[in-house]
Amino acid sequence: MRVSTVVLSVLLAASVAASGVVLTRQRNALVLAAGHAADQENAIAQQATTLKARDARVASLEQYIARLEAEKAARERALADLAELQKDRDAAKARAEQLAKLVDQFKKLVDAGKLEVVVRHGRLVLVLPNDVLFDEGKVALKSAGIAALAEIAETLKTLKDRTFQVVGHTDATPIKTAEFPSNWELSTVRALAVVKLLVDQGVPPSMLMASGRGEWEPLASNANAFARAKNRRIEIVLEQPIADIAKPLLKM
Q: What is the pLDDT of residue 247?
């Protein structure tokens, strides 16, 4: 009976010892697992930090790219504006050269005071004083006027595919005759006389129009004889704006 007790005690002690070993191993395994879990958590945290830093760099690069694209667009707009300014400058230069060329062609008449070349509302206007062309209240062209218009015709007929409006103007002195009930009729008939003379000199009829403005478009006040003489005139207006015709004319 005593031997059995001793054996049981020994077996119990061995079982307890074995259980302790197992528990120790399990405890060590748990500690090791906890260490691995902590390492994994640290690794995950580091990865998260790395990804966050990478996302920040990506966002920074995207902002940088967007800034570069904005700067590129701004440069392209600036270049386009510069090109447009250069185009406007070239057009203005062309208009100035074209005006200078026409003035030079009419230099003799301009110097003689029989013609003025001006730009009005972006259009070339040849202004002929009425007293060079007509006697007061008359519509028959004077010899000096015929000679002046013949010189003008030599230039006008070289300007192909252009349209000119010949406009008659009077001063404010009223006229009322059977032939001319008002200044409207007088200015219009004078314009027609100029058109017919230009056609006779070789200017194609399709290039010409005639109209009368009477006293309703004065250049001066009609307050004195000098002002009234300035208002009595024939204008030959190039209908196309200078900007549309400068380049073709410069090639002549």
A: 46
